[in-house]
């Protein structure tokens, strides 16, 4: 499988390119609107056709490139059925498998940061969006966030994977790029070392986070798959 | 590809089994609740795993087996995003390809009988649901039906296929089992011989059809993927 990690520094967002070496079909996980040219160049350079953009959730901190990429390259936008983005071309739920040439991608429903969050699992890699971050996790104080639900999602759908499974998050603010299930189970400051559900809920309730600076623009735009007209009128 | 056609005589409904010979993965197109045991026996006999039930639309004349099959066999329910059946596990739109082992199934959006109708195209076969029937077509007087839209769907997404493409409809009331695109383009009494859009709309406006006898039970049940609790309370 072809694999590349992109980083957008303004919002500290990771985007991932996965592709089948044989069929040359590709997907982008969580592409960011401002980096469209970078993705298109990477696809062209490798001789790949973009078939899907996969959203881990409806983001509050950046605008997705899904709509721009579907207009320019004909890719289809994939998002969870309950994420509130009926603009998606393919709405998925837990346990759906997406086949991209020889690459099989399993959808794992991991709500809690938002009620429409999924992780994408393929081979020995899981792309966790804002559910599980490296030594952290997504906040749970907006978009139907729920700390107890996030704890259950991470435990049942991510920590249940083998310890050596690679964890690729949606963001990192501290220079990390990858972790493993084992490392997060042991050391994650909010979840690691067997912290209980009650302890986690208590931690999440006391984060005292600022109002997200991009949410009022990003949310309506992303509910329209990143449609720029919606973004501009927001 | 493994292929079998089932017929449910009470509502004259066709159900189709398609499966990959190698992976032994199967789909059922438009399975009917009352024939669940028949499908399960056929799957077992052939050693197949049911991965998807594919709805061509939300039916008004029979209850889908989608929910029963997903509970009993773990299959996923597939339906068009705009069909009003958010119970579906995978909501699709025009141009999406479903991969079932080596079998590729293309979703073709063919609204007009209802606003959520699709046809499924694989190899040289198209499964047209109630959009195009043999020597007929679906009615357009309920569920956001629209004769002009149905004419466009059939012309752009079905009649645009090669003439020898096999047409497998959702129903037949006259003993037919299969047709071809060429046969329907030439001879279909409502559409054939190059009938204009205006002629077709005129024909559809004057059918004087009775109120569908099962619609008040079938519609709410099918909007819940055939969930029996919903059916019983309807």
TrEMBL record, chains A, B:
GO terms for molecular function: metal ion binding; sulfur dioxygenase activity. Residues 12-171 form the Metallo-beta-lactamase domain. It comes from Methylophilus rhizosphaerae. It comes from the Bacteria. Keywords: Acetylation, Dioxygenase, Iron, Metal-binding, Oxidoreductase, Transit peptide. This is Glyoxylase, beta-lactamase superfamily II. Belongs to the metallo-beta-lactamase superfamily. Glyoxalase II family. GO terms for biological process: glutathione metabolic process; hydrogen sulfide metabolic process. SMART domains: Lactamase_B. Its cofactor is Fe(2+). The keyword Chaperone does not apply.
């Amino acid at each position: 499988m072809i694999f590349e990690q992109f980083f957008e520094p303004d919002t500290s967002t990771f985007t991932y390119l996965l592709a089948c070496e044989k069929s040359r079909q590709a997907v982008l996980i969580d592409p960011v609107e401002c980096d469209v040219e970078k993705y298109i160049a990477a696809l062209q350079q490798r001789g790949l056709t973009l078939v899907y953009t996969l959203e881990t959730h409806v983001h509050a901190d950046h605008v997705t490139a899904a709509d721009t990429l579907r207009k320019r390259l004909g890719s289809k936008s994939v998002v969870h059925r309950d994420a509130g983005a009926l603009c998606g071309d393919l709405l998925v739920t837990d346990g759906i498998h997406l086949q991209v040439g020889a690459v099989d991608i399993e959808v794992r429903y991991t709500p809690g940061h938002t009620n429409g969050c999924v992780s994408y699992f393929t081979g020995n890699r899981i792309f966790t969006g804002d559910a599980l971050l490296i030594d952290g996790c997504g906040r749970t104080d907006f978009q139907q966030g729920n700390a107890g639900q996030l704890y259950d999602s991470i435990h049942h759908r991510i920590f249940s994977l083998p310890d050596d499974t690679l964890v690729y998050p949606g963001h990192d603010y501290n220079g990390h790029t990858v972790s493993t299930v084992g490392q997060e189970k042991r050391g994650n400051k909010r979840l690691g070392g067997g912290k209980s559900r009650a302890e986690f809920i208590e931690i999440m309730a006391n984060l005292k986070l600022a109002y997200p600076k991009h949410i009022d623009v990003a949310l309506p735009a992303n509910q329209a798959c990143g449609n720029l007209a919606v973004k501009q009128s927001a």
